[in-house]
Amino acid sequence: MVLRNGLVSREREQRVARNIAAVAGAYLLLCFLAPLLLPEGTVPELSGRANALDYASYESWGNLDHGEDAKLGHDQSAHGGAFAWSELNPLWAFVYAFGDLNCHQKHERSWEINGNQMPVCTRDVGIILGLVLGAVIFSLRGLNRWTVRDTFLSVFPDEMVEPLYLKDRRMAAMLLLIVLGLVPMGIDGFTQLLTDYESTNPVRVITGLFSGLVIGWWFASALCARAVFFEGDPRIVSLPANARLMTK
User: Fold this and answer.
1) In angstroms, rounded to a whole number, what is the distance separating the alpha carbons of residues 128 and 23?
2) Tens-place pLDDT, residues 136-180
3) pLDDT tens digits for 171-229?
4) Residue 236, SS3?
């Protein structure tokens, strides 16, 4: 928070949040453009592992035949043949490499455009879109209030959160909102993992969106919550209900 002519300036908060939204939004756009602009049939049906590079080269793990009933992977030769993102141009290679590292890329949980599988699954599409929305929400109202919890709650009108300050329930409120955003995805994902239930792509997008929204909102808050802008004096932080921060 910076005071200019007696008014609170939110330039830094807006800049940080917009940068987060721009980075996430740019990658999401590229996830749609890459399969659309690549020649039809360039990217076959994939099935890899999260947090691993499975399709970097034609000799990579994902291009092996693991059996159609394998818990991880499949017989790549039966799903359109081998794929290596390192053979693409640098931009599309980055898009698919990032997806390869962060997403399992299961074809049955992913969309196909122009005969090419997208770089990430539908759940991750929802998460990335949620990151954009969470950052945008913070850019509209978010304010540095020293701590992450108070900065996180600053998107609400002061009068709405006054009861939380009067009863000192700010941390609980922030954690509750984050949990509410994450729980739908957790329930959908773990139910799918532990039972015969199979989710649908629309449900994956929606649950991923709620999860990404609270993550993007929290991330923007964490980057913007800085005591240095108050010259180390918590007493000058303006909070709802005339509450005051105190250092221990």
Assistant:
1) 10
2) 999 999 999 999 999 999 999 999 999 999 999 999 999 999 999
3) 999 999 999 999 999 998 888 878 888 889 999 999 999 999 999 999 999 999 998 88
4) helix
Report the candidate in 91, 81, 123, 117 with the shortest Cα–Cα distance to residue 27. Answer: 91
56-81 burial code (b ≥16 CB/10 A, e <16): beeebbbbeeeeeeeeebbebeebbe
Reported pTM: 0.92
Radius of gyration for the chain, computed over Cα atoms and rounded to the nearest angstrom? 22
Q: What are phi and psi of 117, to 5 degrees?
A: -70, 140
| Neighbouring-strand partners of residue 89 | none
Contact in structure between 116 and 190 (CB atoms under 8 Å): no
CA 179/CA 186 separation, integer angstroms: 10
The DSSP code sequence of 155-176 is TS-HHHHHHHHHTT-HHHHHHH
Structure tokens at 191: 């139910």
d(CA 204, CA 184): 10
